[in-house]
Amino acid sequence: MSVTEMYEPVLLETDGAETDFDFDFSVFDDTDLVVALIDPDTLEVLDEPELGVDYTVMLNTSTVGGTVVFGTAPADGQLVSIRRDIPTTQGTDIPSGGLFRESQIENALDKMVLLIQQLEERVDRTLLQNPYQTTTELALPVAEADTVLGWNTAGDALENKAPNTEAYLTKASQALAEAGTDDANYMTPLKTKQAIDAQVPDLIAAYKVRVGTGTIVTGELDIDASLYDVVNVTVDDDFELQLPTNGDDGDRIEIRLTQDDSGNHVITLASGFQLASELAEDGIVLSTAASALDKLGLSRVGSVWMIDAFTTDYAEEA
Predict the structure, then answer these.
(1) Distance between CA 302 and CA 318 in Å, rounded?
(2) How would DSSP label each residue in 194-255?
(3) SS3 120
């Protein structure tokens, strides 16, 4: 035979009743075919039927190609894939001084052409470099999770890169604008979400309550306002509450004071505190019972620390 046709694999729809599926490319034997059933949506292989068990092949005698005949019709809604897969071997043996058989030589040449076509079909489905591009080094970098492939700064090799979401959004906006689509209706919500997502860690940090432990040292309680929003203190001695250090206008601190097993420890205030009028009348007097819990609320207005809340006698947790 000669090879005058081009090779193109066959992909045919099934209807649940048809058993015969034609192909129109050259093969030498029925074993030169690969038949598979394909999901039309995902293009994944659903089944690889077996030659001689699930199907047979009838090769045409006067034209190229033939017919794949299933014993049972494939289910409706699938695709039958018929591809050529000729072994890449050279089986023609021409002994020295032997007969020169024209058909034998022609078949050997035909097989080379069929193999070239088979390889060409596979190459056509791969990524190819522009033939006028001078860069020839296209080795892929080692796979790295959550990255994308991109050109390096020099533009002469591929490398792993972190996804550039903003660049994608910009290109999408440009595409929508070229299509005459209102960017505000489509891209603005997405951009807003991206912006919010980027700010989430800072927002969490901004609103997270910083809780720490304070200690009464030599009769004084010192608090660093830059470190804590809530301070838990075990009152194990009479003490003087000092003005918090490193504070800014608007800072608020809650001080939780728990009497130790002895109780009856008292608090005095360092000079410089201002008390709310309802607190100034009675002063700050701690509960005296063992393990009693009292709370002080402090706020800074300008450069002045104010005590604007005092609650006493919290019941001990049961």
Answers:
(1) 41
(2) HHHHHHHHHHHHHH---EEEE-EETTEE--BTTT-SEEEEEE-S-EEEPPPBS--TT-EEEE
(3) helix
Q: Note the pLDDT of residue 1.
A: 67
Tell me the domain boundaries of the chain. 10-123, 137-197, 211-314
* Residue type at 192 in one-letter notation: T
Residue 174 token pair: 């440009």
- What is the enclosing helix (H) or strand (E) of 175? helix 165-178
The beta strand positions in the chain, using DSSP E, are 10-13, 20-23, 33-38, 45-47, 55-59, 66-70, 79-84, 148-151, 158-161, 211-214, 216-217, 220-221, 230-235, 239-241, 252-259, 267-269, 274-275, 293-301, 304-314
Rounded Cα distance, 168 and 172, in Å: 6
> What tokens appear for 31 in the block?
């074993």
pTM (global) more than 0.85: no
Lateral strand order in the sheet of 66-70:
20-23, 66-70, 55-59
Q: How far apart are CA 271 and CA 269, in angstroms?
A: 6
Q: Angle 165-178/183-207 helices, nearest 10 degrees?
A: 160
Identify the three-state secondary structure at position 5.
coil
- Asked whether the CA dihedral 239, 243, 245, 251 is positive or negative, the reply is positive
> Torsion over CA of 139, 143, 146 and 148, rounded to 10 degrees?
10
Kindly state the tokens that stand for 293: 């819990």
Mean per-residue pLDDT pooled into runs of 10, the chain (318 residues): 85 97 94 96 95 96 94 97 92 76 83 89 82 76 88 86 68 64 52 59 62 92 92 95 93 94 94 88 88 93 92 62
Q: Which long-range contacts (CB under 8 A, 24 or more apart) does 184-188 make?
A: none
